[in-house]
Design goal:
- The longest helix is centred in the N-terminal third of the chain and has 27 residues.
- The protein has 123 residues and is an all-alpha fold.
- It is built from 6 helices and no strands.
- The radius of gyration is 16 Å and the shape is elongated.
Length: 123
């Protein structure tokens, strides 16, 4: 349960970024499920798309803003910043980027402790 408490702690730039990145992935999932119910059956129901479309759109825009603010505050290079922005387009890309950013030392206290300079050599 301690992990869940940490997840909802939005007191730092890195934790806010992680929360929004995961939230964006969940809204993608909702939209994909809504699209499946709309297009797979012959007489599809589009209520899922009507609900999750605007929610995902709003969270998508918030993610882009948070990504830029996080990049500025944590002094990301242009490569990391562009990857964060591009990660919003494919489904679940934000979570993949967040894991990469944490592993390479770009998410401050959420990172593994390996310095960013060492991480750049490996990436």
């Amino acid at each position: 349960m301690a992990g869940m408490t940490n997840f909802f702690n939005l007191s730092s730039t890195a934790t806010r970024f992680r929360f929004i990145a995961v939230l964006e992935a969940f809204t993608w999932l909702g939209l994909l499920i809504g699209m499946a119910f709309k297009y797979i059956p012959a007489d599809g129901n589009e209520i899922g798309v009507k609900i999750f479309g605007p929610i995902h759109g709003g969270v998508f825009v918030v993610y882009l803003g948070i990504a830029v603010l996080t990049a500025v505050k944590l002094k990301w290079d242009i490569k990391a910043t562009l990857l964060a922005l591009v990660a919003a387009f494919p489904p679940f890309g934000t979570v993949i980027f967040e894991i990469w950013a944490a592993r390479t030392g770009r998410l401050a206290e959420l990172s593994t402790g390996r310095p960013v300079a060492d991480a750049k050599v490996l990436s």
